[in-house]
Structure formats: structure tokens, C-alpha cells
């Protein structure tokens, strides 16, 4: 009998399961350059970690005074991103092991992401993670993206799980805040190590301060078993 009976796990995608942020940065850099913003940097990109693509382009329009519509910007960014994502997205090896370990125990799992549904499914198929992660929620399908809890609550509903029985795995502060707001425990693996002291991460049940370099499937699994036992 698994020590995780009754527990469900909801994964963020970008920066958590897969190292997709370089592709998001490059897609954004290209789109902004085409719209008269030639010097978008990685540091600029880090300000938008963890929020949906739609909310990102809405912020760009305001902050950079872009003339293009939000719809045009969103379509352009998603198109560029998909071109990059299909050819060059890597799953983190320890995260792949973690998914496989949970699958072997029969733990229900979902992906809840700010990316478009098309991008999520393309990446899961391209990395082979779709073999285990078949329940997918995009922020485009709910009223509010992270840090609102909507995507995580929808994922729990699709898994038939109570929020209190769900564990979220996240890399960004808005996602940790969303998990807390949803009433779910959180394993936080900060994508940007310098952000590990962000107040949102203080609510996480397990904070892997060193990010993916420090994360191991076995340590996360053992912590989940202890958390499940403690109720």
C-alpha cells in the first residue's frame, strides 16, 4: 500500500517540470524587437516569471506603450514560443524521475500552467511526460491566472480531489501564492535562487532553496510521504 494513498499532485510546467524559460525569453525578445523594443533582457524577463502569457503581454502593452493589440501580441508570442518549444524543451531529469515514481505508486497527477493549452500539450508530448500527465489545465481555461488559485482548483476538480489532499509543485512566487490560496500544500523549487526569500515561498511546506540543482526525486517523495502521514 502506498504511503501516498489519497494524495494528488499538481505540477506547474514551465521552470518546474521542464526548462522552458529560455524559450519563453527568446520568443518574447523576438516579438518585442519587432514592436520597437530592441533591448529586452533576461533580467526583464525574470519580472514576468510565473504569470500567464496573456497577463505578460497585457503588462508589456502598458509598460512599453505598444500599439499592437493584446490579441496580436498574444498570438505572436504563442506562435514563436511553439516553434521553439517543439524542438528544444528539456525535462529536468530528477523531475522526470519524480513523475515516474509517483506514477508507479498510482498517485493522480495533473499539470496546471499559465501557458496556452497548445503549448502545454506540445511540450508534454515532446518530452514524453504525457505518458503520465494526462490531466492538463491552462490558465486560458479559467477566470484568473496565478497568483489566483483558479488553475489549481480546476485541476483538483478534474482529478476528483479535495484541495487539502493536493500537493502543488512550483518554481515561481505567484504559483506558490496560488497554491496557498487554493488551500494546498506546496513543494517550492525556486527557478531564480535569489528569489528563495520571497514571502510567497515562506508558505511552502517544502522549500528547495537551491532550485533544480538541489532537487531530488527521492527527497521530495520521502517528504510527501511524511506530509501525507501528518494529514
UniProtKB/TrEMBL annotation:
Pfam families: Hydrolase (PF00702). This is HAD family phosphatase. InterPro entries: HAD-SF_hydro_IA.
